[in-house]
Amino acid sequence: MPFATESSGAMGVSSESKGCVEMFNCHQVRRPQTERGFTLIEVMIVVAIIGIAAALAGPSYTDWMARSQLREAISEVQHQLALARITAMSRNTSVTVTLTLANGSMGISTANAATGAVISATQTMNTPHVMTLNIGPSPGWTAVATTAVSFNSMGMRVGGPGAAANQELALVNTRGVQYALKVTPRGIANWCPDAVCP
Fold first, then answer.
1. How does strand 95-102 pair with strand 105-112?
2. Integer CA distances (angstroms), 19 to 11, 12, 91, 129, in order
């Protein structure tokens, strides 16, 4: 039987298929490989979506940054006023806190009211989004470059608008948002995210 069709070769390949490879150089059908990567159109669509999202998020980010710096600045003022009040009581002396806002930075310093000796050197905060320092009484705010709050040795606020009224100040950011702070006659400082504290 010279033409056996079912005989197997050394590797389990039938002689018929082996002969096809040797004699006729049979071509196997190749499956197309899946393409990898992105097309130019897909990349351009993604870039366009990112661009639109950035354009929509830009103003929101700027507003958020302005409010964040305003909140940080007014919180720092409240913290320094509370620290000055505690210092006045612990040292049994009058203390004055001076606030200055100019050229995108706010300075806060604390000194002995009687002698002028510096208790806390000027601390400077970089606040490019905080533009205006206002003093009360509200709602007739007055823009100033510097203001001061004083406490006596018992921690009570002295000076300002009078013994019975709150001393008010406010900071305004580049978007026109104002956060107010009041110092009660007892010397307690509180801020609120409103134009006027209740």
1. antiparallel
2. 14, 13, 108, 84
For 101-143, how does the pLDDT look when each residue is reduced to its tens digit (9 = 90+)?
A: 998 899 999 999 989 999 988 889 888 889 999 998 888 899 9
Q: Are 181 and 191 in contact (CB under 8 A)?
A: yes
3-state secondary structure the chain: CCCCCCCECCCCCEHHHHHHHHHHCCCCCCCCCCCCCCCHHHHHHHHHHHHHHHHHHHHHHHHHHHHHHHHHHHHHHHHHHHHHHHHHHHHCCCEEEEEEEECCEEEEEEEECCCCCEEEEEEEEECCCEEEEEECCCCCCEEECEEEEEECCCCCEECCCCCCCCEEEEEEECCCCEEEEEECCCCCEEEECCCCCC
Q: How far is residue 166's CA from residue 132's CA, in Å, rounded to a whole number?
A: 20
Domains (ranges, CATH) in the chain? 40-192 (3.55.40.10)
Give me the half-sphere count of Cα atoms (radius 13 Å) on the Cβ side of residue 174.
Answer: 13
CA torsion sign for 132, 133, 138, 142 is: negative
Residue 153 pLDDT greater than 80, yes or no: yes
Distance (Å, rounded) from C-alpha 87 to C-alpha 68? 28
Please name which of 100, 84, 50 lies closest in space to residue 152, comparing C-alpha atoms: 84
Please give the Cα distance from 134 to 112 (Å, whole number). 24
